[in-house]
Fold this sequence. Notes:
- It is globular, with a radius of gyration of 27 Å.
- The longest helix has 36 residues, at 184-219.
- The chain starts with a helix and ends in a 28-residue tail after the last helix.
- The chain has helices at 2-29, 33-44, 56-76, 80-112, 117-126, 132-141, 148-160, 162-177, 184-219, 227-244, 249-261, 268-293, 303-326, 333-341, 347-353, 355-358, 364-383, 386-392, 475-482, 507-514, 520-523, 527-534, 585-599; strands at residues 405-409, 417-423, 444-447, 450-452, 465-471, 499-501, 544-547, 550-557, 563-570.
- The protein contains 23 helices and nine strands.
- Helix 1 (2-29) runs antiparallel to helix 2 and helix 4 crosses helix 13 (303-326).
- The protein folds into three domains: 2-392, Na+/H+ antiporter like fold; 405-482, Regulator of K+ conductance, C-terminal domain (Alpha-Beta Plaits, 2-Layer Sandwich), CATH 3.30.70.1450; 490-605, Uridine Diphospho-n-acetylenolpyruvylglucosamine Reductase, domain 3 (2-Layer Sandwich), CATH 3.30.465.
- With 627 residues, the protein is α+β, with helices and mostly antiparallel strands.
Amino acid sequence: xxxxxxxxxLVGTALILAAAxxxxxxxxxxxxxxxLFLCIGLATGVDGLGIEFDNARLAYFAGSLALAIILFDxxxxxxxxALRQAAGPALSLATIGVVLTTGxxxxxxxxxxxxxxxxxxxxxxxxxxxxxxxxxxLLRAGEIHLRERxxxxxxxxxxxxxxxxxxxxxxxxxxxxxxxxxxxxALAANLLLGFLANMGLGAVIGIIGGFxxxxxxxxxxxxxxxxPIFVLTLSLMVFAAAGAIGGSGFLAVYLAGLIAGNSDIRxxxxxxxxxxxxxWLAQIxxxxxxxxxxxxxQFPAIxxxxxxxxxxxxxxxxxxxxxxxxxxxxxxxxxxxFVSWVGLRGAVSILLAITxxxxxxxxxxxxxxxxxxxxxVSLVVQGWTVGPLARRLGxxxxxxxxxxxxxxxxxxxxxxxELLAYRVAPGSPVARGERIPRWARPSxxxxxGRSMRFQDMxxxxxxxxxxxxxxxxxxxLLDKLFASRAVVDPEDADFFGAFAxxxxxxxxxxxxxxxxxxxxxxxxxxxxxxxxxxxxGHAEYADRVMIGPIELIVRDxxxxxxxTGLGLSFEPTAPVARVPVFLSAGEIGDRIAALIRNWRxxxxxxxxxxxxxxxxxxxxxKATTDx
Length: 627
């Protein structure tokens, strides 16, 4: 017995270490890391090294707990402003999109696998949701800098669509297992009532649990080493409590994380680091267990139809469902295309495919094997292409800040304050002589191994290590001072437009210069207000608005979301008037007068203004290159 304990521990830790080391391959070559986790599980399973693991209940139990940890962490790391910005499109995809994908996919599944309508719908529900672990890894760990609205939509969708898919899957398993053949309208009514009860109870428990976690953390003066374990345990308690009363535990734990992460919870830095590590461990364990549970020798019997179904899901079912869901939101075509493509399937689909085995369904193993192959196809085809496609569609934005050497520390009794340790980077604003605000005077400076007061240091130099104790709402402002210049990729050189525009100028001057067809009401606005209005009332860094022959790009926004920098670009087919507009009042008047004289009359007879140098910022760099 004692020998068995050592052997199981040795094998388990070896698998986790192998998965952890595989991350080096993923980051080096851009491979989908979660695919490597699955392959390690397959390689050590019954058809590989010979480890037999055929306990469906244990696999489902362990996978569910791991998914709960991942969802709590994803909610904890989702900013509330991202949720507000992407709530409409993301929730539409997470609800209606899952149902549409299930319906469209089930048609093809019944044809390729010769399953009944209910069994085809069951397989469709299992693979209908995008995988939070896969999407979060590719977007965050992969350092793919997307436009904020696209990133937020994908992250919120992947974090919220699991409860709907889980509900549909379990309901269909129960119906098939009971040999029920209800009328279509009765089935729809039961599903609707059950769905509302499941989601409603999950939402209530999640909201109560989230506020409860925050309150307990603030009231109990726990040791910093115990606090993360305490919060993780509470999140799992929320998950279990919601499920025990018939609600969605997965929705509850996601909402609890969302509320806790967006509150002024104590020791937030410690919590984020711990949960990041636990989320990685949960992903590794979940993918390894599901890989061990699979039997690859059974795959050849359904390999061809399952691969065809995977391609059908990628190229037909998902894009069609996304397009139908996003019609009301009028998103640009490149964004819709990218959201359609980044519908990666992962461990959640395999986990849900275990439920037919738990329900004792006749074709349970076939459904599980088909779902496993579909996930492999998704990770191989989509996982390798997310970055290149984002660049191809023009959705990758240059980094706002360059390299930043920063350490965040929390001291006992320093609630809502942080001790920040910065290393002054060459070329950063403070290294160039920029003054540090009074509210952020450094407490200590280290230079060449010597510590001294900031007042005695004189001007900060590259390599100095600076310690600053500030309230937790200020670090983002300091990051801009201590970060070096962001190196703009040559392919991104024109990302923010040819000209720098003054956001405070009147939109009427824009109409006079380029005749984009603004209404009289729009011409009374400032250019910043015009862009914000066209974006639905909220502007983010790198947002773009096409107005007639020109495109306005948001170069920067302040802490309150107000536009502080704009760029102007032209449609490829439009005449490029390279005139540095909005530079000064006199120049503006002269330029507009010249443009009016040249541009009035039929469009085809308008003369193209003379070409002038591209407008630059005072330091000669395009806007936002140094944050």
